[in-house]
Amino acid sequence: MQIDxxxxxxxxxxxxxxxxRTSLKQLTLARDAGVDIVCATPHFYPQRDDLxxxxxxxxxxxxxxxxxxEETGEKYPKILVGTEILLCDNLxxxxxxEKLCLEGTNILLLELPYTGxxxxxxxxxxxxxxxxxxxxxxxxxxxxxxxxxxxxxxLGFPAQINADSICKTFVPLSIKRWIKYGAVISFGSxxxxxxxxxxxxxxxxxxxxxxxxxxxxxxxxxxxxTSKI
Length: 229
Ligand SMILES: [Fe+2]
What we know:
Blueprint: E1 3-7, H1 20-32, E2 37-40, E3 43-44, H2 51-72, E4 78-81, E5 84-86, E6 107-111, H3 119-130, E7 135-138, H4 146-153, E8 159-162, H5 173-180, E9 184-188, H6 201-208, H7 210-226
Parallel strand pairs: 1-2, 2-4, 3-5, 5-6, 6-7, 8-9
Helix pairs in contact: 1-2, 6-7
Bound molecules: fe (ii) ion.
């Protein structure tokens, strides 16, 4: 089973897709790349977004997409609705945070800040983790400074990387190491629009061979066993 753990495909929910036609095209690309499940993870910015408004928007956008999928009569990958949450101080105190977990699970997909990692940020992660309510995973760790990311991975948290990151001419040793030693438990297209997204999906799969399949098995286990509610 192939799972795209990180994708922006809900029409009108964020800048990933403006309209239903774009989302259907994204899902067609996913299907043609052999993806069975797409986790729809629109951005949630705690300092800017109101949680109730976001949840309503996400629900409405998902419904619009499901209706559009049905209307076409075509077969598409299954969709699990979740969120990509920007980690900020005091996120642990946000009322209703659990509603942002990936559908049917207690998984929180956290996007780390691009402005550096603060002591307060680590306190927030620690508080979320020690609450025992969530399984935390960090989004596209390939995008950050490797030394900073290793501070996070050393704490034992799993990570998602974008498939694109393993298709470059020179793949950083750090990324290879994170995959090899099991820190990476999911791949994502992180698709926005229809230009890229799945172009490198199969290339990444070919490059990694058996390791790709074993990461996919880890993703499946993470969603349907470890984190299932
Ligand atoms: Fe994303």
